[in-house]
Amino acid sequence: MESHKADVSRYWSGRAHAYDEAQQKGERSQIEKELWKKAFSFLSHDDGTLVHRASNAKPALHTTDAKQAVGGNGTATGHNGDGTPAIRKNHGTTALHCTDATPDLRGSDDGKQALRVLDVGCGSGYLSRIVAGFGHNVVGLDSSPGMLREAESHHVRGLQTVLGDATCPPESLGKFDVIVSRYVMWTLEDPYSAVCAWKKMLDPQGSGIIAIADANWFPSGEGLEVDVDSEDGENAFIDTYGHGYAEQLPLATLDSPQPYLDIFQRAGLRAHLTWLPEIDELDLICGVSRGHMPRKRFLIRASVTA
């Protein structure tokens, strides 16, 4: 499958602009951003959780069910009790290379501690921007030059982008307090080796946390024949992940997240899974982007065992 990596990189470069644009527009974009901030709020200084103790704490996202914010007509107004925007129904739509961006190396403006965070498979930088917004220094790693160009176009303070393989990040990047990813593990040909590599990049004096968000995107191969917005045409996904390739990826066609947990535990990490029902609810109310299917998202927090 080694020769296919170049095809995958080209696919994501071709998808980059449309993929990034879809995350920035429409009624759902700001609500979704707030929900993802909530999912990763253990990295926020405002969360009340000491980041260096976060490996022993369970994520708090599931404390509010989005259904409670939706009225009988499927429309919600105002805010949820935790301060996140309430969901409103949209009736109209259902090789190592570093950028010139300066990685702040900052303590945050209010003097609180800034962590060093690696976003593996950062894509267009969606999660990187959220984490950098918490006041941390983020390195976004991706094998797609097109995706990195989109990430760089946002000019985010504290974000540095690096071209490289998420499965084996360059050791020259150094150590990190936290490693994160979003919608990446399902794409990996060898996710166990990737997790082992990520574990080695954790600073032994740091938080020791790996946090990944994903879903069972194509259970039993369902949903693989989708059209997408891409510079390479609407069949780009099928041409890249079809013809048996997705079935060769260990996590792509599962119908349960348990194998994800097994990988972390096999790598010597203590793992805890939290479902993300509010984001799933947003899919049902606002619809999904072209080329996507409604799927139940989950967040896995893994920490180094003693």
TrEMBL record:
Species the sequence originates in: Actinotignum urinale
Protein name, UniProt field: Class I SAM-dependent methyltransferase
UniProt cross-references to CDD domains, sorted A to Z: AdoMet_MTases
Keyword S-adenosyl-L-methionine belongs to the record: yes
Biological process terms in GO annotation: methylation
Pfam families in UniProt: Methyltransf_11 (PF08241)
EC number: 2.1.-.-
Listed GO MF terms: S-adenosylmethionine-dependent methyltransferase activity
Domain Methyltransferase type: 118-209
InterPro entries assigned: Methyltransf_11, SAM-dependent_MTases_sf
Enzyme class (EC, first level): transferase
SUPFAM superfamilies membership: S-adenosyl-L-methionine-dependent methyltransferases
Top-level lineage group: Bacteria
Keywords, alphabetical: Methyltransferase, S-adenosyl-L-methionine, Transferase
